[in-house]
Write a structure and sequence with these properties.
The protein is built from six helices and five strands, in the order H-H-H-E-H-E-E-E-E-H-H. By secondary structure, it is of the alpha+beta class.
């Protein structure tokens, strides 16, 4: 999906932030991509950038290192999970549901990664969607 398509989808589902935050810069993305040795897809980058404009239930983890909504950064959540659980090092969390569960991308599959759901009770990663685009298109049902 293009940036405009993601923006149009989110505008139908979410309210706008009263004061927008800083979207990730190219330098922010380079840090993340270097850390995970992968390249993220354009639809994922568009979604994360647009989280500086829209509110989302739960915690979409941040990539930006400047003025954010206060949610944890992807790197912080990843590092904490790597220390305190049996986290799969290939899994990149991007959405903290709020009870220890996450939606993740697999670094080994980027830029076209499936979306995985991590259940903290079973400590298992299960495929959830065939792609990030499918995850985005299912948001209306997920958020209903």
């Amino acid at each position: 999906m293009t940036h405009l398509e993601v923006q149009t989808l989110l505008a139908k589902l979410l309210r706008r932030e009263e004061v927008p935050f800083d979207p990730p810069t190219e330098a922010d993305w380079k840090v993340l991509e270097s850390r995970f040795r992968c390249r993220f897809g354009d639809d994922f980058k568009a979604f994360i950038a647009l989280m500086s404009e829209f509110t989302f239930p739960g915690e979409i983890l941040n990539v930006s290192r400047v003025r954010t909504n206060g949610n944890d950064a992807i790197l912080i959540a990843y590092d904490l999970e790597m220390k305190h659980s049996t986290w799969d090092e290939r899994m990149i969390p991007f959405y903290a549901i709020g009870n220890g569960d996450y939606f993740c991308l697999a670094s080994s599959e980027c830029p076209q990664s499936r979306v995985f759901y991590y259940d903290h009770e079973t400590e298992a990663f299960e495929p959830y969607c065939d792609s990030f685009e499918v995850w985005l298109r299912q948001l209306p049902d997920f958020l209903a």
